[in-house]
Each structure stands twice: as C-alpha cells, then as structure tokens.
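Objective 1.3, modelling of assemblies. Example input:
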Amino acid sequence: MSAENNNEYGIYLDNNATTRIAPEVVEAMLPYFKEYYGNASSQHGYGVPVEKAIIHAREQVADFIGAEYPDEIIFTSCATESDNTALWSALWSQPQKNRIVTTPVEHPAIMSTCDFLSSRGAEIAYVKIGQDGRIDEEDFKNKLTPNTALCSIMWANNETGNIYPVERLSALCRERGIMFHTDAVQAVAKLPISVKDTGINMLSFSGHKIHAPKGIGVLYVRRGTRFIPFMKGGHQERGRRAGTENVPYIVGLGMACELAKKHLSEINTRVKALRDRLENGIISSIPHCFVTGDKEHRTANTLNVAFKFVEGEAILLMLNEYGIAASSGSACSSDSLEPSHVMRAMQVPFSAAHGTIRFSLSRYTKDEDIDKTLEVLPGIISTLRSMSPYWKEGKPVITGLDHEFDADSKEVRA
Amino acid sequence: MWDYSDKVKDHFLHPRNARVIEDANAVGDVGSIICGDALRLMLKIDPTTEVIEDAAFQTYGCGSAIASSSALTEMLKGKSLKEAEKITNQEIVDYLGGLPPEKMHCSVMGREALDAAIANYHGKSYENSHDDGELVCHCFGVGINKIKKAVWENHLTTVEEVTNYTKAGGGCGSCRMRIEEIIDEVWVDLEKCGVPRPGHVPTPIPSLNVAAAPAGFNSITPVSSIKKDEMSKPEDSPVYNEVMAVLSEVNSGLSEGSSITLKSLKGAHLEVVFAGSIKDGMMKEMTLGFLKQKLTAATGREFTVTVI
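Predicted structure (tokens):
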C-alpha cells in the first residue's frame, strides 16, 4: 500500500460512515482501561471515581444536546439500540395505540424495526417525500391519527445530508399528544441542538459519528415520557437500560461531545466552505453531474453527487488508488443489487442512482484534501466515461448497430 | 470495499482494449444502465479464416465488470470463432484469478456479450437467436434459460449463488421460490449425468448405465461410442485405477477373513464378490453402501454395484 493509502496521510471523506477518534478522546479513555476498572455500582473505593466519571460524562452529553436534566440521558451500546428502544418502548407503554409514523428515507435501524413491528400487527405509515427528499408536511399532519403511538423522523439524512424540520414536526405532535422520536445520528455535531426547546420526547445518536469510538450510543428520554426498558436486568441507568456501564466509552463519548460543541461553529464555517468549494469545483469541471437532495437544507459537511454514464463503485475504486475514501449509493458497492433506498424514495432514476458518490467531511478535513480530490476526480470520471458505451460525446459511432444504449432512461424498477 | 485479486485490480486500472473498433463486424450489446452494468463487445473477424483479429470493449459498470470485459477481449484475440464459442464464464473468472462470489454475474455478462457478438456476426440479433424462456425475475428481466445455464455450467446449488451469477432474485425477491424449483429441476439432470449434488443425498437411478470418465471430467462419453471389446476387460475402464484404489482401501479396513474382489467393471456398473462375514445380512448392506459412497467420492460418479 502506498504512503497515500496510509491512514495518516489518506484523504478521508467518508465521515458520515464513521469518524476518526479524536486523540483527546483516546487520552480521556485510557485511565478507565488501566487504573479505574471498578464497577460504578460497587460500594467500595473502586467504584467511586468510576461513578463520578459517568456523572460527569452524562452532564457533558446533556449540555451538548441541550437537555434540561442530565438524568434524561441513557447510555446505550449504539444508535441502533437507541432506535430500537424508542420504537418498542412507545408501543409497549401505550398499549391502546399501535401506529408509527415515519419516512421512507430512515436508517435501516428504523426501517427494519418498523418492518418487523408491522409483521407483528403494528401499523406503519410512511410520510410522502419529494424528489429533493423534502418531507410533505401536509401529508405528515394528515397521518397523525389518534391511534398514533409514535412519530419517528430522522433529523438529518446520512446519504444526502437533508435536514428535516423536526422542531416544527415535534411541535405538531406535542399539540396532539403524540410521542416524537428523532434519529439525530447525522445531525449532532453539525447543527446547534437544544432539545429542551422542542417537542422531542426521545432522541438517538451514536459516538462513532462524532469522533468517539464505535460501541457507544445515547438515547435521550425527556422527563415525563412513558418508558419501558428494552434491556432488562440490573438497575443501571436508573433502571432504564440494564447492563454494566461501558465506562471508558462513556467517558470518551462525554469528551467527544464537549469537543463537538466547541467545534460546531467551525463545521458551519470552515468545513462548510470546504464542502462548497468541493461542490462548485465538481459541478464546474465535470459535465453531466448534479447534486442530489435539498441544497438549501443540508448538513454542512455532506455532498452527494450523481455522475451520469458512470458507475459508483468504479469511481470509488479509482479514488481509493489516490488514497481518497468516499462512499456510493450504487448497487455494486453494497451487498444488494439495488441502489440505495434513499435514492429510490427520492425517485432518482436508476441510471443516475448507480453513479452517486457521497463526500462527507469532518473538522479534520484539510484544504489540501479538497485540492487533491478536485485535481484527480475530473480525470477519473472522464477515464470511466471514455470506457462507457453510454458516453457518446466526441465518439466515433460504429455503423450498422441495431441497438442503442439509453443513458437517459427514467425507468425505476418496482 | 471488495476484496479483488491483483489481476482484477490490474485489469480495472489498466484495462486492455477499452476502445471502439469502428469497422467491427461482430458487436454484442448486453445489460442496461438500469441494472447497473452494460457491456458492448466489438470484434473484428476475418471472414475467410474466421479468426478474431481484434477485440475491444466499452463497459459501464463496477470494477469487476470492467476487469471481466478487459480479460475477455484478451482471451479472444487470435482465437478462431470455433474456439471462442467454447469459452465459459468460469474461464473468465479463472483468467482473473477469481472474483468475489457476489460479482460472478460480471463474468456471465461477458459470456453473454460474446454470444451476442457471434449472433451479430452471423447476421442475427441476439434477442432472436436465443430463447430467454419463461421470465422468472421481473426486477432484472432474467429468463429461465439463463438461470438453467448458470446452474448447469457452474453447478450452483443455492438461490443466493444464482443471484450472484445472474442477478435473478436480487430485487424484490418474489421469484426466489421459483428459482429454487429451477435449481432442483436442473440438478435432476445433472445427477443423471453423474454429478453428485453437494449436501444432498444423491437420488439413485439404477437403470442408468453411463460410461464413467475420470474425475474432473468435462464432457460425457456416450455409451454407444465405447467399443464392445473395450467394455469386456475391467482394466480398460477409464476409472479402473480409481476403482481398484477404493477396493484396496475398503479391503484393508475389513475384518479378518473378509474381502471384496472385482469381477467386472462396465461403464458405471461394478460386479464384485464378497467373502467372509460381509457375505450377507446387515454387514453386506453396510459394506455395499460404504463402497458406493467411496466410489462416488473417488470418481465423482454414481455407480451401481452388484454382489455376485
């Protein structure tokens, strides 16, 4: 592997997948692997510093998302666990209601759980989504029936970066006495969040998207929200999430939240400028590509571009040769043979969906990273296009062909 | 990130023959942008010698689709049309040093493009020159004949493998039951040809008498082509050595005083003499079953064994 491919010098533009662990976070965690290995529940001296560390981390997290009380924070193993807990708890704690309102662009942690709950008798309603991924708010209001147990709407989308108006939507739910949950994995550390000023009852996020390690997540549960734990057992987390606390990771998450709060303005100024420079550079230097999603309401670090006539996995492989890491919504880059469900929900034609590339930046992204990407990307796209039977510009045409490849097919398979 | 072989990476990053042959006289178009990959194979064939003088491609698709196309053009150059017709998708895979299971359909697409180009050379359109048969997978437009061919040539046993090779079943998944039935149908025929179905208790077909070929056989020699006198001596059988090795192995495991001797070996039929405690009863049945199993394992064929 070349030096460019090395993590130290690589260009990592896949921060919506996972992030580099901040060195400060690693430093903060280390003592809890070595010296402070006690159990927070213990009554002896080993437990005391550990318990204090958890209390401190809980305050850091509460402060980060603007929760009114630290005890509204429950530490979980990941955002998927938080999402599962929220959906199950809403149904279990309100047995007279069986409806969940959500969107077709949610993360699989919500989508698959809803599919399962639906097969067990719950009623799932999907709110309409426009071609730019925006939610149809009139349709949303109409879907709020008296038997709705929960609305679960993501705060920001992982693929397009689209921001959903959860403050407004949660207020509508509060008026109607409906519980509201939001998957905020892609929103925290990118948007200023003050959960106490909204109608949100539950909020999920995970550590590894904000420069903490994998394996730690948070579920915020507003005081007064009916709640039944998903994990049953000991009395940890005030009886709301059993299982011995993952102390080093909780400490790491606390530190990551504190850092994220400090760097929030940087994301929306310096990083946003880098993202905009990348976007403008791509659009101006590469013909036949377009940005997917809602350009006015996007997280500042995310850019999703569809390149016509080329396939996403091939682009990723070539970028990888230059040590640049991004991701694709194409079918070939995943285990599935279909393009991503988000692109399909937004009715992006399959012909473009196969060529979507997501660049997601972080506070560690440097000017040079964007320079390098803009330097190599036009060449990659034109190399791949020159190989493509769909690319005809300036190309000789073979005589006597009885077949034409249709690059502009608007077809969307059922 | 897919775990591609160095050869795949090389053919993707440095594709051979990725260009247009303007005076190509055989062009094969397969796939579509909707399905995520498409390939145009262009050949220049000498009409008098029918030798492929030049081969080139244009491909829309992932790394392994481009690499498979590049490999195919390299394999085709200099071959006669007759030789080219025999290329299988597995040979493309072997040329590339293997493909991840999920990417096998890229090699199948290469093989299809070759069929289409040859049909085009003969003045036929690919659609008319081959029969898709019943449409099985509506999401990816895959017909029964393509599935049967993939199962037959590559000895596929699961729906997942069929999806990897043909994409059928990779969309909504509603055709997976039907694919399972098709796999079973093809395996009935494969077993008749003596291919043991992995993980399945082989269906015994006692009336069948197929001349056995050595393990790893490619084609089946019809019984009629074997001369009468060849069949009379067991030594002349192509699997004689394997059978004798199995017999001596089984013999060495038998208790004192018991033995198996070969009387005759005709095609896939074996006549043996049992002596000692295995001559009759439960021991006879057990030894017979064990012997058959060993023979199948050693030769890849299903044998009928008669004790005389």
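The interface with chain A takes residues 1-2, 9, 12-13, 15, 18, 20-22, 24, 27, 29, 32-40, 42, 57-63, 65-66, 102, 120, 125, 138-140, 163, 167, 170-172 of chain B (CB under 8 Å).
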